Amino acid sequence: MNMIGGKMTKKRGLTKRVEYARYEVLKLIQQGLSITEIAKYRHVSRQSVYKVLSTLNKKGLIRHPKRSIYELTTKGIEGLHSLVGLRYKLRQHNLHFKIKVLESPRNWDLKRNELRSMPYFNKTIKLKNNEQDLFNYGKLKIKTTSKSIIIKIPTLYATDWEHATIQAIGILEDNIFKIEKLLKIILVKDYKANITIISQEYARIQDALAKLYRKEKNRLYLTGEDGKIWLITDFSFSTDETEFIHTDKATDDLDAIEPFFNDLRKNPITLTEVREDLGRVQTVLHSDMANRIKHQKVLDEILLTFNKINKRLDEAGLKENEK
Predict the structure, then answer these.
(1) What is the separation, in whole angstroms, between the first and last Cα of the chain?
(2) Number of Cβ atoms within 10 Å of the Cβ of 249
(3) pTM of the predicted model as reported, rounded to 2 decimal places
(4) Nearest residue to 150 via CA among 199, 202, 203
(5) Strand partners of residue 177
(6) CATH number, span 2-72
(7) Is 67 left (phi over 0), alpha (psi -120 to 50) or beta?
């Protein structure tokens, strides 16, 4: 800190460095690194790591169930999601793959409907200094059925749904053989015929539409012709999100509505303003319709008068001919 005018002031950028240190330690704990590994990764002393851990513990972001073991609380996971979400546009979640079982052990029926979990670290290279980020916001959830297994992929962050899908497929490919070994089964590897997506949801992060609804203390729900909700606005993990949740058409819906969101970002407007504009348009339309009806009545009367005149002229012409 510096002394200016007898007052203590923070050095410029200090807050950002402190916040980033806390975020980074949260991220590394979620990855399962030890205190020593965190210190080596951040190029600091163990004492520095413990100091950050103490702060995180006081804020309720982590808990300390056993010696040298730390884990994130629900509040910590939400905070981590929120911070990471600022770096991406899209959050993919609730993605389930269903894969048919080719061969299973004799006691497979006894293992039906079991739910197991497997830790997964999604390795990527990010940032200018080539820092390696390993996101692990959960574990692979594996549910067994009589003829197949269902795999739930952890939450993924990406710039668009194509990159998110590529990451998900990569996770699936990396873990198929581990799952086979874990459950002592052989899965059918033919992707087109035997590996299907049974659910998927995508959320646009820091979305303008969701922000508008949150400001008005409201939420948006859109239902398709099939009766299923396909779009909602939410405030998940302390970020404004518009979620596309239709099982089969989530990616198509995301692509279809993209132009609308881009236009909304360029020309922001509140829902109240939209309703007021629509109200004014409706007033003009009603007035126009009333004028059209009134004018139509006048035109109908003119036409009726012309018909009467023509009829009388025709009658007068016939009488002249008879004479």
Answers:
(1) 120
(2) 17
(3) 0.59
(4) 199
(5) none
(6) 1.10.10.10
(7) beta
